[in-house]
Amino acid sequence: MRILLTGGAGFIGSALTRELLSRGHEVRVLDLLTYAGIAASLTELESDSAYSFVHADIADPVAVAAIFADFQPEAVAHLAAETHVDRSIDGPAVFVRTNVLGTQVLLDEALATWRALSGEAREAFRFLHVSTDEVFGSLGDEGRFSETSPYDPRSPYAASKAASDHLVRAWGHTFGLPVIISNCSNNYGPRQFPEKLIPTMILRALRGETLPVYGDGSNVRDWLFVEDHARALADMLERGAPGRTYAVGGDAERSNLQLVRALCDVLDRERPAADGRSHAERIVMVEDRPGHDRRYAIDAGRIRQDLGWAAQVEFDEGLEGTVRWYLDNENWWSPLVAGQQGLARLGSPGA
Ligand code: NAD
């Protein structure tokens, strides 16, 4: 398939680009290279003739129309977004522009492209929208999110993703565009921008800094290794049913405090602190994120049953591999954290 992939210079997008190329697809990445778009995440793919890159803003209808006309995609994988909850607290406007308006621009162009197709190409066309479990709000101690969970977004980020999900569904129902939505839990793995929890903790630990955990550390997330997620998304593009939503999770619930302690254990083995103390001694509890959702967890039964997908990377193994990747790839992350940039707290209460 000829696949237009938005947000391919990001964390999940670069993993999905690799997965799709390895399955023999042709991939054109469309990315604005915002602060979170890292060209170095794609450099090693440049020699692959099935890969190409175009620099553009998904919210620019003229640029997007030209890209669709030139590439003539047989499927769209839409991952480009503003993604950091803390940034959405400090400045929500760009989240609405990119996540909501940008999605509408892509849907319009995908619809025009799909309508011009006939026969098998029209049957096979898919618009895959990559969304989050955060659109469902917050869970208590029991239960898990699934495809039928009601929408209840709490942060500006989650609200912008929920809005984009509704637009995608509307283009499916109203115009017949063959859309698929994926709502997945927190991803972790190589090439995640340093501002997110796991890389922040690894890189702060390497600098001998404190490891700040929000609130009492009991907020729970269900962690999914990024390459498992990429396989799920590729399966959806190849075999997912139009109009379907798939919830994707790693069956690896951890509280934030458990997660940071596990990271410290790996770091104590792989890169012991210079003073001989455990990294965990630098954990400090700090004021909570405003509106911090308590718990997310996913029931991935449908994608297991429909597509035969299952997470393959066990959490401890994935976490260890992630730490090693950051230890081995300082060239990738060091330009992103020059000074405090990339590791400083954002979205503070009253900021
Ligand atoms: P990321 O922040 O690492 O990457 C986002 C990419 O989008 C960057 O390359 C950036 O340059 C690009 N981008 C931003 N605005 C753009 C614009 N206007 N035009 C074109 N490109 C633009 O994000 P990620 O963590 O890889 O997430 C990818 C998708 O998966 C997002 O839609 C996100 O909502 C969703 N998601 C992420 C997670 C997670 O844990 N990371 C979980 C669930 C869902």
Folded structure, characterized:
By secondary structure, this protein is an alpha/beta fold. It has a domain at 2-189 and 222-252 and 294-315: 3-Layer(aba) Sandwich (Rossmann fold), CATH 3.40.50.720. Helix content is 40%, strand content 16%. It contains twelve helices and 13 strands. It has helices at residues 11-22, 61-71, 85-90, 93-115, 119-124, 156-175, 197-206, 226-239, 256-270, 301-307, 315-328, 330-333, and strands at 2-6, 26-31, 51-55, 75-78, 126-132, 179-184, 187-188, 211-214, 220-222, 224-225, 245-248, 253-255, 283-286. A seven-stranded parallel β-sheet has the order 3-2-1-4-5-6-11, sandwiched between helices. Helix 2 packs parallel to helix 4 and helix 9 crosses helix 11. The chain is globular and about 65 Å long. The protein starts with a strand and ends in an 18-residue tail after the last helix. The model has no long low-confidence stretch (mean pLDDT 95). Bound molecules: nicotinamide-adenine-dinucleotide (NAD). Residues 6-7, 9-13, 31-34, 36-37, 57-59, 79-83, 98, 102, 130-132, 161, 184, 186-187, 193 line the site of nicotinamide-adenine-dinucleotide.
